[in-house]
Predict the 3D structure of the following.
Amino acid sequence: MLANNLSLNIVELGHFCAYLAMIVALVQGLAPIAAHYLRVPRLAQLSVNASIAVFVLTTIGGLSLVQAFVTSNFSVQYVAQNSNTLLPIFYKVAALWGGHEGSLYLWVWILTFYTMIVGWLGRKHYPEHLPVILAVQGWLMVGFFGLILFLSNPFDRLFPVPMEGNDLNPLLQDPGMVGHPPMLYLGYVGFSVPFAFAMTALITRWRSELWVGLIRRWALIAWGFLTTGIILGGWWAYYELGWGGYWAWDPVENASLMPWLLGTALVHSITVQDRRRMLHAWNIFLVISTFSLSLLGTFLVRSGVLSSVHAFAVDPGRGMYILVFMALVLTVSFGIFMAKGRYQQAEEVITSYMSREALFVFNNVLFIVACSVVLLGTLYPLALDALSGMKITVAAPFFNTIMVPILMVVILLMAIAPLVPWRKVNIERLRTRLLWPLIIGASVTVAMLVFMQPVHWVGPVAVGLALFALANLLADYLRAVRQRRAQLKEPFIRAGIKTVLGNRRHYGGMIVHLGIVIISLGLVGSGLFRSDQTVSMAPGDVVEVSGEKLRFDGVTSLKHENYSAIQGQLTLLNSGRTVKPQLRRYPRQEAPTTETSIDSTMLRDVYVVMAQSNDGQKWAIHVYVNPLMRFIWGGGIIILSGIFLSLTSRRRKRDAREPAGAAEPAQ
Amino acid sequence: MKSLVSLFLRPSALICGFLLFVHIAMPVLAAEVTEDPLERQTLDIAKDLRCAVCQNESVADSKAGLAHDMRAIIREQLKAGKSRDEIVDYFVARYGNYVLMKPPTHGAGEVIWLAPLVLLVVIGLSGFVFLRRRLRSTLPPPPPLSKEDAARVRAARRQQDT
């Protein structure tokens, strides 16, 4: 009883700390404003200390919830709804972000964590601007704490206390689900840091050279987490949802893709500002838009507007709050942008259409079109339904038709642009460099068209483009290595490693491109060359799907900690390996859930789902053969290593000379 | 007593033995099952229809009860000899255009198909106009310094002079 009382009190302590955190965040947001208007500059420092306090308080609140989950304290409503005594401890902790309230708490927890890091780094590197940065973050925290504590409170109690919890959704009881939401949120919330820097740059008229590196670095970190989150989400969907695919153009998926697309535009165009001192205001605009789309993503997923616009209109509380909050963030940030944007001005001009900076502009055009298409496709059906009551479906067929060509142009651009130098290209040289890769790509396309008789023109063309890009990447790298060897007389391997380590930013980016090429090959393989069969099998039956023979060996029953299962076994006759799809029954769940089983090799996945049997003799088995699936996950790992390499580059020391022409004061 | 050998050589025994052999060797000579063509046709139609209670899932991919029922209806109608278009029309008559995975190219769906083109033209043109302006013009004059900055510059100059 004593222990029980103690754990009750720990939750109340956490609840109290969360309120306190909101108040301290308010102080953090107000301090620099007060310092400015009351003319007490020292007051601004308060926000620096506040940022640490907010993180500590939020952490106490978060840990108290974790404790409630681990001890199965069902007096907490959120715990009762999302956990169960039978749940393995691993999932009890992960259940913290299994529902609305907890995942919003995770959002703000991550926000306080980032803010603390920014505060810690800022004392040394940008102390003058730090209070303003932290104030922007502070206001965001206040907004989210308001939502959490007043409308969506994970600390809410439930009386009478139930004996047993409702259990975590079985689909979420999976290692992929443990990693996916925190990664995605580290990405979403990560964009709040560039946002705070951009706002500060506008408000304080911060000089471009001083903030561009900071925004670049933080945007890259956020983009890396978002990429990881999206790929983990795809991986989870692939083996958990059992329809053979990994990306359904579901609005929830689109919600994470939109900030990713704009973030991609941002990490490219910020380089133009860094190297060629232009696009300052444009980058700030991109930062604001990317963060707004992160907020929109949270809004779409967490407001319930997707399941039904009418439910949203009837019970507006939570959704309306996020909508108003978003409108405020947009109005204030774009308002400041319009008022102060002119102080962030280009310092140089573009000299040629065929220069890297011009191609970066083209890159931005493509990614913004892509992002707008996704935005429109996601919101248009909602708006149409809300305004006219007409319902249409905008789903995979639409998005694939529109996005695939755009992404093919993106790959084409990705193949050529890294060969084009800043300022102006030597067309002759570019032509010779492109010749061989072009021949390779084109001949593969032609060969595929002739010998494979593919169902769709996209496959051969996309593979040709990807190989064109790949050949360019390798050739460019080998040229750099050869040059280094000629100059320094180094052995090949040493020169190869030194080339990469000597220019980490560039080769980090090229490794990311390599990952994208490999992922696109995986997308083409699994998207256009997949084959599947649904068959009814009795033990001993054999089915053949694109050369893979599978024999059904029968079923056995299994009992697990928190579910019971019927497990089928199929032997892959080509290799002797087995796959074991399951039908699981969780307590408190009506329908059984299917558990896919996958036999994966470098070139193909055999993906097997077993459905309910009608007579106990024959089982409906769905077999998919998905080519090149590992390319997608492997490409993801390559992308991450590229980002990591890029982030380890030291910032170049540069002289902070006055921008040309600004030396004369206007009298 | 007849010899044991002759017992095994009886025709009936030979057949039994053969069947036994077949049974043991089944993994090698097993019954190969193939997909019911009706099932393939059903799924081909189902993948273009939306499971009305799901979030952006097609009837082919969804595991919801309604999707199961809709597949059963498609199967029955196929058996009754209806064509693909007739079956799709049957569902559109009941659920409206909402049931089509691909938005229609007329009416409310027209907007969504035209929009990407419009977006491409508008955004592409703005990018092009931006580049042209940056290529032609010299830089705009820098904005005037703020009062504080101007004072700072004056102070620095004074310091340099002295």
In short: Chain A touches chain B through 67 residues (CB under 8 Å). Residues 2-37 of chain A form the longest helix (36 residues). The longest strand of chain A covers residues 548-559.
